[in-house]
Amino acid sequence: MKRFCVWLGVWMAAALACAVSVGAQEKYALVIGNGAYTTVSKLKNPVNDANDMKGALEGLGFQVALLTNAGRVDMEDAVERFKRKLEGSSGAYGFLFYAGHGVQSNGENYLIPVDADIRSEAYLPDRAVSVQAVLNELNAAGNALNVIVLDACRDNPFSWNRSGTRGLRAVGSQPADSILVYATSAGSTAADGEGRNGLFTEQLLKNLKTPGLEVYDMFRRTSGDVIAASEGEQRPALYSQFFGTAYLGTEPAAQPVAQQTLPVPAPQQSQAAAYAGMVLVPAGTFTMGSNGGESDETPHRVTISKAFYIGKYEVTQKEWRDVMGSNPSYFKGDNLPVENVSWLDAVEYCNKRSVKEGLSPAYTISGSDVTWNRGANGYRLPTEAEWEYAAKGGGSDAYEYVGSNDAGNVAWYKDNSGWSTHPVGTKAANSLGIHDMSGNVDEWCWDRYSSYGSAAVTDPMGAASGSNRVRRGGSWFDDTRYVRSAYRDVDSPTSRSSDLGFRVARL
């Protein structure tokens, strides 16, 4: 099957795991912009895109090599020099940006040099630059993360197009530890933009310059801005083989919660009022995990020995503001789930809400050290086992997603979210009456992350040590794989993003 596209931007980045400071990383960039074509239509924006990207990356501390209106030999030589720089440091960041004509043919994507005379598809392998070859070179460099963005595609520049279909295809072999971003969905077209830059590059530049954005959140914001600017006509896509946390610029300083001096609790509420908006989950035993082939979802029997309450909905922005006095969320609305909150933010909220309602705080907090007082009746985060047990209807549901085998019935996810959150409770509940445990926003759990064993356990609380915490449920940004009831994810307790919130639990 043959596909064609006009111009695309490719960029690659390498990052260390979240425990290593970005400031300690070596950062290199290769920026290519091709517009002055001699055998096909000229393009107005790629050189502007490349020059502007060079300035933005230098502002983030990258050493940038710029190449404009380049031939094939120059492009391939530049990629080889770039690879050698990355090979010099296993933790280096690399960023490769390409803007210019591109084409898909016979399942391969190609970048088109400005002087290429490509009279038919048969000439592509010898006269264009293979995207897969570039990816293979960077993968062989052995650096920590490759991020690839394909900003495609305007029009087919070649008269020999027989398929009539434009757009690049998804890369067949994605490098390990990589993030691959398309400016538009595979097989679709992207707008050239009405100003100095292409639509995607314009939004990418804006968000790239925003201080303190984690790389995934930077892409999420860019994608949302592209969708809004194009009125839904252009929808970027992201594919990932990277499971850490990375900042292209300066990593924001952690904001630990100070040791709290708690006021005298207010009078107790009535039983009905005290558990308003919560669902009782009875004690029981269930199979946690799945047989879906995921390495960290090993099925095993888990007993939840005590009944507990869990929020019927994710914590909303109004609920957060009523307790914390502010709203950190990227998407605004009282009944939207609060997001852009860290794990440490969530446990602080639990304690403050507990005090406000006359309950015993569940956590003792000293800076970033948090201890769970398991006998306290205040609000807390559910354990990962409690979360999945509740998601599976107290162990009685056998659905792939939380409450259904059809993700669209119960979840706001990539294909139906419009790239934003939605008011809580607008999708169907599971058998216990709990909403949005699939999709909308990911949800923090108490546990430190560790792989499952296969032995039966009672009331597991996660790993005894480790820096990262579990997040569950998937979000508006994810495809169906990530909104399954058994899917697991992990993040730094200081991480904040527009797809990450939480719900509360209680005794």
Description:
By secondary structure, the protein is α/β, with parallel strands linked by helices. It folds into two domains: 3-240, Rossmann fold (3-Layer(aba) Sandwich), CATH 3.40.50.1460; 271-506, Alpha-Beta Complex (paralog of FGE (formylglycine-generating enzyme)). It is 21% helix and 19% strand. The chain has helices at residues 46-59, 72-87, 124-127, 131-140, 199-208, 215-229, 271-274, 317-324, 343-356, 384-391, 407-410; strands at 3-7, 27-33, 63-68, 93-99, 101-105, 108-111, 129-130, 146-150, 178-182, 237-240, 278-281, 284-288, 300-304, 308-311, 363-366, 369-372, 442-448, 457-458, 469-472, 488-491, 500-501, 505-506. Strand 5 (101-105) and strand 6 form a beta hairpin. The longest helix is centred in the first third of the chain and has 16 residues, at 72-87. It is elongated and about 75 Å long.
For the record, the count of structural domains works out to 2
Biggest sheet strand order reads 1-5-6-7
Task: Provide a count of the helices.
Answer: 11
CATH architecture of the largest domain: 3-Layer(aba) Sandwich
Shape: elongated
**Helix content bin:** 10-25%
Give the overall average pLDDT.
85
- CATH C-level of the largest domain: Alpha Beta
Rg over CA atoms: 25 Å
Largest sheet: 4 strands, antiparallel
Structural class assignment: alpha/beta
